[in-house]
């Protein structure tokens, strides 16, 4: 086997592992990513799987990064070209509501970030830090558009961007909960009504 073919196959195997990890973690949590389970699911050896990541922790962080890529593609990129401020923020919020349905194949158990935040908020370590870092990056993006909306007179001058982001995150946690736990098909519309109140 040529080195090039070997490297290509290794990358392909790593991608398969990460994709499966994201799907499993969205249903069973990041702690559900056991080496034995994934190796059996993918038909590879445990040592072969570990060879790609070294530790379970590294695998969990790789799954989070992939989930971040999926989220960015589904929620941020469609709105990124819109003018900063309320126009872009509204586009982001709409994409955020619909991404739970759009990404059902990647996240069969719902939003991996929501699940991971609950799973790791009381723990210490690199995985918790990775979850917190991703949330911080997302919060900064939202705050930038909220500040732009205030500067442009689209929102009242006394708007507190941090408070609005807090409320936006609460809406999306509630949406994920309603969709996943109760199968509530009215939840996206409820979320949209809540968003209109927060952003008016």
List the helices and strands and how they pair.
Elements: H1 3-28, H2 35-42, H3 46-53, H4 56-80, H5 86-102, H6 112-120, H7 126-151, H8 161-182, H9 187-199
Structure notes:
The structure is a single chain. The protein is mostly helical. It contains nine helices and no strands. The protein has helices spanning 3-28, 35-42, 46-53, 56-80, 86-102, 112-120, 126-151, 161-182, 187-199. Helix 5 packs parallel to helix 8 (161-182) and helix 6 (112-120) packs across helix 7 (126-151). The N and C termini lie far apart (61 Å). The model has no long low-confidence stretch (mean pLDDT 91).
Q: Could you tell me the number of beta strands? A: 0
Shape: elongated
List SSEs in N-to-C order. Answer: HHHHHHHHH
Radius of gyration using CA atoms only: 19 Å
The oligomerization state is: single chain
Summarize the amount of helix as a percent range.
over 70%
Average pLDDT for all residues: 91
Which structural category do the helix and sheet elements fall into? mainly alpha
Percent strand equals under 5%
Q: In this structure, how is the largest beta sheet organized? A: none
Ends: how far apart? 61 Å
- Number of DSSP helices? 9
Poorly predicted sequence stretches spanning 5 or more consecutive residues? none
What's this, in brief?
The protein is mostly helical and 200 residues long.
Task: Pick out its properties.
single chain; mainly alpha; 200 residues
């Amino acid at each position: 086997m040529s080195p090039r073919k070997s490297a290509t196959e290794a990358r392909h195997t790593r991608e398969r592992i990460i994709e499966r990890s994201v799907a499993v973690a969205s249903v069973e949590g990041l702690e559900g990513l056991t080496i034995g389970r994934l190796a059996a699911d993918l038909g590879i050896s445990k040592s072969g799987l570990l060879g790609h990541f070294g530790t379970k922790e590294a695998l969990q962080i790789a799954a989070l990064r992939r989930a971040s890529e999926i989220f960015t593609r589904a929620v941020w990129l469609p709105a990124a070209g819109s003018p900063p401020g309320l126009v872009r923020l509204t586009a982001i919020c709409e994409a955020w509501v619909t991404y739970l349905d759009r990404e059902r194949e990647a996240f069969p158990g719902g939003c991996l970030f929501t699940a991971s935040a609950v799973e790791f908020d009381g723990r210490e370590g690199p995985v918790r830090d990775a979850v917190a870092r991703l949330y911080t990056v997302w919060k900064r993006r939202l705050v930038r558009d909220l500040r732009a909306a205030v500067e442009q007179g689209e929102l009242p001058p006394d708007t507190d961007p941090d408070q609005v982001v807090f409320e936006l995150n609460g809406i999306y946690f509630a949406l994920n909960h309603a969709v996943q736990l109760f199968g509530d098909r009215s939840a996206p519309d409820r979320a949209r009504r809540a968003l209109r109140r927060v952003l008016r």
